[in-house]
Amino acid sequence: MPTLSDFYTIQDASQHKTKEDCWIVIDGKVYDVTQYLDDHPGGDDVILAATGKDATDDFEDAGHSKSARELMEQYFIGELDTSTLIPAEKNSSENSVQLIKQYWAVPAAVVGISVVVGFLYLRKK
Ligand code: HEM
After folding, report:
1. CB neighbours (10 Å) of residue 109?
2. Carries keyword Transmembrane helix (predicted)?
3. Which member of 4, 19, 85, 92 has the lowest number of beta carbons within 10 Å of its beta carbon?
4. Is 51 helix (H, G, I), strand (E, B) or coil?
């Protein structure tokens, strides 16, 4: 049955990344795991390292059991407002464009300078 729940942005969740106040985002859901940190079999450091971002891949890579997944529902506090992820994706594609531009600038400059030097050298002969 659908229930009303709070929505948080990834920026909201990123404000809670200490041992005293720790939220994680897994599969579009936000969990306040502050009280669970000391009991986590994988240690508190792995959970703290998974704060401030989408921790779904880290959580899945650890191969959590069914009972771990049931347990985590106790710490559910709200849904992730996914509209806040769109600018992040846009930024990362903009970053890729910047990287491609930089990647091509250096070899293009080397080829350009070589052509000019070669041309001048041949003209001198
Ligand atoms: C509410 C969130 C979480 C709960 C309730 C939880 C619960 C558990 C439980 C019960 C185990 C024991 C093995 C199992 O039953 O699967 C475990 C192991 C583990 N967890 Fe989590 N976990 C959570 C989040 C995370 C996150 C975000 C990470 C990030 C990497 C993580 C990393 C690990 C690792 C590496 C182990 C393996 C420990 C070992 O086998 O030595 N867990 N977790």
Report:
1. 10
2. yes
3. 4
4. coil
First to last CA, the chain: 86
Ligand 1 atom showing the smallest separation from residue 75 Cα:
1
Q: Which of 40, 67, 77 to mutate to test the pocket of ligand 1 (most atoms within 8 A of CB)?
A: 40
Q: How close is the Cα of 96 to the center of ligand 1, in Å? A: 33
This complex has an ipTM of: 0.93
Entry pTM: 0.72
Report the C-alpha gap between 31 and 25 in whole angstroms: 6
Residue of minimum CA distance from atom 30 in ligand 1: 58
For residue 10, which of 27, 36, 30 has the smallest C-alpha distance? 30
Return the structure tokens found at 68: 């771990």
